[in-house]
Design goal:
heterodimer; A: 498 residues; 21 helices; globular; B: mainly alpha; 5 helices; flat
Chain lengths: 498, 154
Amino acid sequence: MSSFDSLMQGFAVALEPMTLLYGFIGCLVGTLVGVLPGIGPALTIALLLPLTFKVPATAIFVLFAGIYYGAMYGGSTTSILLNTPGESATIVTSLEGNKMARRGRAGPALATAAIGSFVAGTIGTIALTFFAPWVVDAALAFGPAEYFSLMLMALVTVSAVLGSSALRGLISLVAGLLFGLVGIDLQTGQPRFTFGQPEFLDGIEVTIVAVGLFAIGEALFLAWQGKENKKTDVLAVSGSLWLSKEDFARSWKAWIRGSLFGFPIGAMPAGGAELPTLLSYYTEKKLSKKPEEFGHGAIEGVAGPEAANNAAAAGVLMPLLTLGIPTSATAAIILSAFESYGIQVGPTLFTQQSSLVWTLIASLYIGNVILLVLNLPLVGLWVKLLKIPPQWLYAGIVVISVAGVYGSSNSVFDVGLLFFFGIIGFGMRRFDFPAAPLIIGLILGPMAEQSMRQALTISQGEWSTFFTRPISGTLMAISIALLLVPNILRLIRSRKHV
Amino acid sequence: MSTRLIASFLLVFCAVAIWQVFRIPESTIQSEVGPILAPSVLVALLSLLGVFYLFTTISNKAPDCTHQEEDRPLKGGSKRVLYMLGGGLAFILLAKVIGFLIPAALCGLGVSMAFDAKFNLKTLLMVFGIAGAFWILFSAILGVDLGPIVQIPF
């Protein structure tokens, strides 16, 4: 069956009233968490993981996809009106978007961000639809050795290449890998890192770590700083919420260029959304007919990066769905949702769970339309949400986090663990350790160990198998290069300076 | 709390992890790689990275957001953190004893006071409202087991 036929079948399921309702709720909740500072898609999806016991898989993944895309849309509102980017990917949007709002052009800034997000989301989803089956075909040739090398490459790139310091990224990653090994070893039945506590035998839940780091850690950090009550006011939505002819003419090329930066970079293991948004911003600045407006509120500076951000979000789903490799914290938590249903994510997902995958992809197209309709007309409502006093907002976030963790196991031990990871999250935020490698390590660690042991069993203990098999060897070489080349270049540059 | 203290915590964490690696029982099942290899390699790697981090703290290259003017906390930062952790502790100690509502409200109270809310009737009403609303959402609507809303301990 061709990708197009499968997609049409996906649309048939995604347009069923109940599935559509889950998609709508997801988009609404996603926009809400994107708008609110301190709560993002990773945390929201982690809190909703207990629902996997009650809700069918198709519905839950449509819901999660809506939250994921919705948060990308919602993030721009906070950046433009509050100059507070909810995540690193929307920092660039705030550079020009907030300046536009201060000049009385918040409406066009929000409009170009929303339409750009729609265009990029749709382009990204089209690319996912037609490129994913190619990647699946290639990945079907992978054995355990190739998988181990691929996971190693993803882990190295996420921790060492992204972020401000390879050392702190690697510490975060290795700590995550160690937390992932807590519990009974599935192959031999031996307990590891359990401290004799029966609560640790099943391992540490991803939900607890993610919610602890993102919700409790962030709330502790902001409370410690004590500046949330002193934040600047939310700017009013001024100007028309539609684009003038000139604004449209200046925006559409930036949307397309941003999408073309966003999707391929987002789909790479080391991609992320920061790099394409920055590339898009500087490209637009270079190509603009009015470069003097940059820094004072240039519309291209909002259109391009917002498109890049959303296309990268679609790109992140590519390695997740085709290879089972998460390259962001949100993707890692979606992966653990697949595990909750006992679904093996990877190339076989497209054959064994074809209906689920294509419904998910179809729901991304529908979600984009829902989000475009939701975002602009409801912008007044989103602005009101930004005015919730922080003491009630964070009390709500922490209580819902505690309720989510307590409700999934009915164990106060898990709540204690939640606050333990909250304190770790606070320390990581204060001392600039990235949190995403820890989450990705926690999830990929046991999978990577499993692949390594299978590969070594097949090769009868020959470690060279990871280097002598062509694909595995290439992936290993890329990992080593990614780890070493930036440091060597830095060393050469510093020597030149001397 | 300085970066050197954090580096020391990391090394203590590594020491505890090494102790735990030695406590992993040998497997009786024949396999190419046993349950000890991956933990040993990771703990060794983390210890090495921890030592490197300690060196960066000694040479003052490790960042701490208190070094930057715009990120520096206002006065009373530790007190605010303790309010929040106190709220969490109240939940842990009381949830099994007196049901969900009061411990969750105390947790919310700790958080709201950490964000400079005053201890008054309005704050109490708000935190009880938040705790009650989430019990209804999770327990009554979504069917997640949060235990009884209020429980008499005797």
